[in-house]
Structure formats: C-alpha cells, structure tokens
Amino acid sequence: MSSLDQKTLSYKLASFLVNRPFLSMTIGVALFAILAAGLPRLGADFSYRMWFRESDPLLKAFDEFERQFGNDEQVVLAIHSPSGIFDKESAELLINLTDEMWQIPEVIRVDSLTNYNWVHAEDDEMFVDPLIPDDEELTPELLAARREVALNHEVIPGYLVSKDGKTALIFGVLQPAIGGSPDFEKVVFGTRKMLRKYTVDQELPEQFIDDMYLPYYQSVGDHTIYLSGTAAVSQTFKDVTQHDLQTMVPILLGAILIFLLFSFRRVSGLILPFVVIFPSLLMALGFAGWTGFEFNNLTSTVPHILIAIGIADSVHILVTYFQFRRLGYDVKEGVQKTLVKNLQPTFLTSLSTMIGFFSFATAELVPIIGMGVLAGVGTMFAWLITVLILCPLLSLLPIKVKKASDTHTVSDAHPLALRYTHWLQRNRKAVIAGFSLLAIFATFVALRNEINSDVFKYFAPNIHTRVANFFTEDHVGGIAAVELSIDSGEPDGIKDPAFLKKVEELQVWVEQRHHVTKTVAITDIIKQTNRTLNNEDQAAYLIPDNKELVAQELFLYTMSLPQGMDLNNRMTLDNRRLRLSIMTTLHKTKESTKEFQTIIDKASELGLSATLTGKMPLYHRMNGYVVNTFIRSILLAVGLVAILMIFVFRSWKIGLLSMIPNTVPLIFGGMFMTMLGKPLDIGTVLVASTCLGIAVDDTVHFLSNYLRWRRAGVSRDVAVAHVFTHTGPALAVTTLILVAGFGTFAFASFVPNINFGILTAIVLTTALVTDATLLPALIIGPQSQEQETGEPSSQVIEATV
C-alpha cells in the first residue's frame, strides 16, 4: 500500500479496527447495550391520534367536539337476514345483541332497532317506547306493525335498518377519551367474544373466530353478522401490522438466505450478515423507546427496511473481503484493504440514505416523522455495527478462502465488461437521448397522478373490516359520519325556532347530496314530538314557531327516555350547540375534502356558525399534510444529497452530474404510480425520498471506484469496465436484496405499505439499470486517445481492487 494511502483517515481507522479488534467490538457492544436498553420503553399507538401532533388544530377541534357531545367512535354490527329482519328469530337476536353490547368495555350507549326511542301517540297521550320491545310477546302481528313503522319512518331507514328490511345495524358508542384514545383492543375483542356465543358452531377455535380474514360471523338461521365502525378500523390498523410482521419478516429472511447462499456459497457468508441485522434493528427500536417514538403502521416498516439495509452494508464488505482473499491476501490484510476501500463509500452511502429518511422529519404527520427518524438512525447504526463489530470479527475468524490460480486475471477487467463498456461508448448519445425522451414522457404521465386516499381501502380486500364496511354501505348506508357542531350563539339558543329552521334547511340540503345516506339531529326529534302532540297529523311534522313550545317538547321527550339514552350526545348542556351527524359513503380524500368545504360554505350561506369534525374527516384532512410532506421531503432530500455529492467528489460538475441518474428513476417511479393506479397517499409519499437516499448509494460506489481507477492512470472506458467487474457484483447483489426486502411488502395487508414496497422495489431496480447505462454513458465520453490498458500494473491493482 502506498505511503500516501497510509496517511488517510480510512487507513488509520482500518489499522485500529484490525489491530485492536477486541476494543473495537467492546465499543460496538457497549453502544448496542445502551440503545437496546430502551426496548422495554417502546410503546404502540394505532388510534387516530397517532397521526397528529397534539398541537394540531384539527385534533384540537375534535377534542372540543368530544367535550361538548361525547365520542363519535363506535363499534357497529350489521345483522343480515335474506328472509327479513322483522321475524321472531331476528328480533330476539337483535334484542340479545343490543343488551350484551352494553356490557362491552368502553361502550356507554347502544342504539339499535330494539331500543330506538319511537315517539307515538295513544289515546291522546304521547309515548316514547322501544321500537321492538323486550317485555312483550314478539307476535307476527306486532313485528309486522313495527316493520311498517320502521320502514316508513323519517330517520330509521338507511340508519338502523335497510330500506328492504333485511339488514339491521347496532351502534355501540364509546366513552369519550379526551386527550387520549379508548382501548380499541378491549372493545373489538370484547365484541368478537360476544359474537362467539351467537355463531352456528360455538366450538370453533377462538383464533378462527377472531381472524381478521373471517368474512362474516354465521349466526342462527340465515343470519350473518359483520363487525365494523371506527373502533374496528383503529383495531384493524394494529391487527394488520402484527399480521404483516409475522408474515413478511420470515419471507424476507428466507429470501435473504437464498441470496446469501447464491452469492457466497459458504456458511460464513450466511451467518455474518446477521451480526449486523439484528443488533442494528434492536438499537433502532431501543432508540425509539428512549426518544418516545411509538410503534404504528408506518414505523412497523422500519424492521423490514433495516434488515435490507443491514444486509446491503455487510454484503459490500464481504464481497470485497473475499475478492482480496482470492487475490492471496491473508485474513488481516484482506480486512484492512477491504476497510480502506469501503470505509468512505459505505459511510457516504449510509449518510445519503439517512438524508433520504431524515427528510421526513419536517412532515406534519407523526408516523411519517417516526418512520423517517428511526429508519435514518437505524441506517447509521447498521454502518457502525458493520465497522465496529463485523470487520474486527472478520479479522479474528479463520475463514479459509482458496487463492485464485491467476490473481492477475482476477484483478483485471472482465472481457464482457470491456465489450459492454465499448458498446456504451459507441452509443452514448443514443443512450442519453433515449433516457431523455423516456424521462420527458414519464414526467408527463407522472403529473397526471392525483393526491387521494381511502381509509377503508388501506386494508386488503379480504380484511373483515373492509368487507363489513362496504357490505353495510351497500345494504344500509354510510356508517362513517361527518359531524357538524352548530353554534346558536347563546345559551338555550338551540330552542330558537329561527335557528332550528336554518339547521333544518341545511339538513334537507345535505340529505340531497348523492353521497349522503342519512342525517341525524335533534330537529328530527322535535318534529316527531310535535307531530305526535298533534294527533299524528303529518302536516305537524315541522319545527314549531314558538320557542317555549320547542322547550316543552324537548322536555316531554327527555322525561320519557330510559337511563343512558338522553340527548347529551346531541346538544350541549347549556343548550347552545347542537350536533348534526351526516352519514356518508364518501371515502376518497380528494372528493371528501371538497365536499367538506361545500357543506361549510352552505352553512355559512344560511347564517349558521358550524365546525366540521369527526374521525373520518380527520383522516381525510390528512391529505393536505401528505402533499406538504411530499414536496418538503423531496426538495430537502434532493438538495442535501446534491450538496453531499458535490462535497464528496469535490466537483460541482461531477456532483450535479451524479444527481441525474438518481432523479431519473424517481420520475420513472412517478410514471409507474400513475400507470398502476396508485395515487399519492401516506404510503406512496414515502417512495421518492426513500428511493433517492438508497439509490444514490450505487452512484457513490460507482463513481468512487471509477475515480480510484482514473487516479491509478487507466482510461475512462477501462475504469468503467473495472467498476463493472469489481464493484458491479456487490451493487447487483445489494440491489437484489433491497428489492426483495421491499418487495415482501407485496404480502402485506396494509395497502399503503404494499404500495410503498412495490413502488420502492420498482424504483430501486430502475436505479440500478440507470447506473449501469445512463451514468457510464454520461461520464465515459467519446472514443479517447488515452492508452488503454487491460492489464494494470501491480501499483494499479494495489490502489484500486
């Protein structure tokens, strides 16, 4: 090794790691112990609150709504009977399920056909009775009469029963958890346990009954039961995360073992990469415990990402190490030369990958921040473990490597690499022009994509919650409510007929919207009560003109209500604000946010002061945050990586030139998103910055080794051929491993993770192709008059291989 090389920081650090292996490993183990100690502190959150900062105005608005009206979260059961829901068997099932729903943890109110407060008159008296009583004989005559009442009622059809009378809903409303979240696991598991008693085969294994892939619960007779609601959505976020981890990690590890076996064909090549994988992963999760980042749907991707990145780091080291051993170097010399060659490039590639992940730190959605930070620090931990533990360990292990019979041939550029390089040199203009045209076309296609998402479609099509929701919407109507808190402006103001008539006008207008299946407010109750007090005269189904009469009717109604069924969830205690619930089938963010503004504008036009909130609007309004995250992260990542490239190569020209083959795959990725019908959402928004940070690794390795060969005195084409020969295999293997790692997300149940993984795998594959074609075409130049050498001198070999 030249005296110049011996003065470099890489050489000095390599000498320390090889000559003081136990001290190096002690430092690495100590760092691991400190960080891994945070693992017991690692928490998990899969509720709606996990997405937002506590200072977020959207979250504050919802907390205020909860203080005024209680929780809008609920667990919903849909009971379907093809023969009709108004027979004795169905009625008894509804009564039993309604009664037992009150016992579910966190449930403080249950609404169903059986306990719906039916306002009616008998012998000039007003009664408020359960629509399907549990204290009378359920005769065919009684049930037929109640069916007639229900299906001709102004509120019940499309809310508690389908218009054809074959599907009924039961709503279990959860207690408020202002500043926190209900225990969704208790709610959903409690409901599943209750349903177990009503399944046809009660001896089925519990894990089958609780299976999130179970399409429905088969109950007595021809009844099927579906479980949905916002509580089920929150719990399903957790269920799919756990399922994906249990499914994808083994698949990923199996794919990695196959790649390692194919690449190294030796036991050490299979085992040593895991020296990096597991410690770096545990360190990242421990860091999350120490810093307060919680486990959720997005941070659950970190283990897969770090497994792939940890493998990539170790493979670069091992491939180079075995190359030097085949050249005849002994164990310590092989490790030292491996480190001298790879310390700087691997550090820079880890740094660029960190930049890609850390660009998400400016996001407004907390899980995206957590994913970015944890993946970023985990990337650096993987590099530290590789350097502090793996490399010193290599210097201690007596790994036998057969020396090549002709070391000169091993060190030379492969004939195929030379032929390919010469082809690129002859056709460089055509290659550059071809990529330019493709990039222009890809940009045009990518810009046609839209920013959109659908919370229920975040789950795979066979997930029970998704099946249940769309079944309920198809048969009854929407169960995801948009909530309006309407302020009358003064205490007792909701009793003012003028105010109520404006609310009624808004309600009528909203119900005419194509996506709205039902609205619910106290205006319905006031009109029903007024009609009943006027001998069921349909003409009296209106808001009285007298404020005192409105107050009396509300008082009469509330005095007739059973315990737990009051109107506190429909109006505030000071009677200043009322709640208008809008049941909608809108799911797509783009359409929903536009509709939200339309509703607010209409309320303002009517002179009403309305605030729109609710769980579903919270999810939909994340759309703006997704846009900001995409723009900020990609601009920050591109800017910082460009600066890094300029600094690394100490050249504006090379630094900016290196960004071309790294941005082109991102444009192609945008094209693939559009072609595959993948809109920009919380999963796909992560692709660009993540891929930029990872894809630039290949460019750094390519250009670093290219410049080493150029400094050794060989021509451009031969330098490129040597890079293909000596660095190309490691780049190909690491890219394949990364593609396999992200490709395992195709087996996920959380759709944003599926999209993220598949698109990342596509972009990384495209990036490798671009680095193998466009990048050398840009740097190789025209046919050179330089003296080509296919057989570098021993000094050249010493400096480069």
From TrEMBL:
PROSITE patterns, per database record: SSD
Subcellular location: Cell membrane
SSD domain segment(s): 274-396, 654-781
Cited InterPro entries: MMPL_dom, Mycobact_MmpL, SSD
Topology within the bilayer: Multi-pass membrane protein
Transmembrane segments: 21-39, 245-264, 271-293, 305-324, 345-363, 369-397, 430-447, 630-649, 656-676, 728-750, 756-780
Keyword Amino-acid biosynthesis part of the UniProt annotation: no
Family matches, as Pfam families: MMPL (PF03176)
SUPFAM superfamilies: Multidrug efflux transporter AcrB transmembrane domain (SSF82866)
Keywords attached to this entry: Cell membrane, Membrane, Transmembrane, Transmembrane helix
Gene Ontology cellular component annotations, sorted alphabetically: plasma membrane
Record-given protein name: MMPL family transporter
